[in-house]
Amino acid sequence: MNDTAVHIRGLVKRYGGTSVVDGLDLDIVQGEVFALLGPNGAGKTTTVEILEGYRKRDAGTVSVLGEDPGRAGRSWRSKIGIVAQTATDASELTVREVVSHFATNYPRHRDPEAVINQVGLGEHAKKRVGRLSGGQRRRVDVALGIIGDPELLFLDEPTTGFDPEARVRFWHLIRQLSAEGTTIVLTTHYLDEVEALANRVAVIARGRLKVVGDPATLGGRATAGAVVSWRENGRLMEETTANPDHFVAQLVSKNSGNVAGLSVQRPSLEDVYLQMIGDSADGAELRKEAV
Ligand SMILES: Nc1ncnc2c1ncn2[C@@H]1O[C@H](COP(=O)(O)OP(=O)(O)OP(=O)(O)O)[C@@H](O)[C@H]1O
Question: Could you tell me the membrane topology recorded for this protein (predicted)?
C-alpha cells in the first residue's frame, strides 16, 4: 500500500526570473501532521497552493493523494480540505447557513452543527458572518476546511487572530482529526503550535529545504548541551553540560537532596530555528532589516 500523501521532487516556481521555490523535495506520509516553517517570503504558501492545484509549477514532480494536482478533477478535490491564508469574505449569511451550504459541495460531509460546535461557534450559529470578530471569522474558515471530511487538510496560518482559548480548542480539534486518520499540512509561524501538533516539521528558506525532522529533536536539540541553574548561598549558579543527568545527580547528592531553584534548559525549538535561519542568507537579510 502506498502510504505517501504528498510527494514532491525538484519543485520550482519562478516569478520574473527569481525562483521562489527552488528545487524542493518533500514526502508527507499519510496520517501525519506535517508543519512547514520558514520566514516571510520563504515560499511556503506558493508550495501549498501548488499542492492544492491553485498554482502552476515551472518544474518538478508533484503527487498529492496519488494524483498531479495540476490535472486532478472533482473527486480528487472533494478529498482535500483547505484553510487558506486569506480569510472568508464577510457575508450577510449566518454561520449556520454558510457552513450548511458549503457542505453540499461534498458527496460525503460532516454534520454542519457538529462542526460549528467543534470550532467553538455553537453560540454564534445564528450570527451573520460579517458581524463576527476576526478570530471568530477565522474559525468559520476552519469549519469550511473540515466540513467535507477531507483525507488531506491544508492549514495556512490557521490560528492567526485566535485568542489563547480558541487556539487550545483548535489544537484539540487537530489532534482529533489526526487521530481519525486525516493527513494535515500546517503552515504556521507559531513554534509552540509546531511543537504541540506536528509529527514532523520542514524548515524552508528561500524556497529551499533546510531541514526536516521531529520538532523535539530538530537540529540536535534533544542531545545538545544543557544549561543547569540553581541557587547556592543566595547566588544564581549556572553550568553548561553535555550530561545534565549526571551533573544534577551529583548536585543533588552534594546538597543532601535539596537543591534550591534547580532548572535544566535545553535549546528551545525557537533557538534552533533562529540559528538555522540565521545561518542562511535570509537571516542576514532579516538582521539587516532589524538594524
Ligand atoms: N503572484 C506572485 N507574483 C510575484 N511574486 C509572488 C507572487 N506570489 C508570491 N510571490 C513571491 O514569492 C515569494 C514567496 O511567497 P510565499 O507567499 O510563498 O511565502 P511564504 O513563505 O508563504 O511567506 P509568509 O510567511 O509571509 O506567508 C515572495 O517573495 C513573494 O513576494
Answer: Peripheral membrane protein
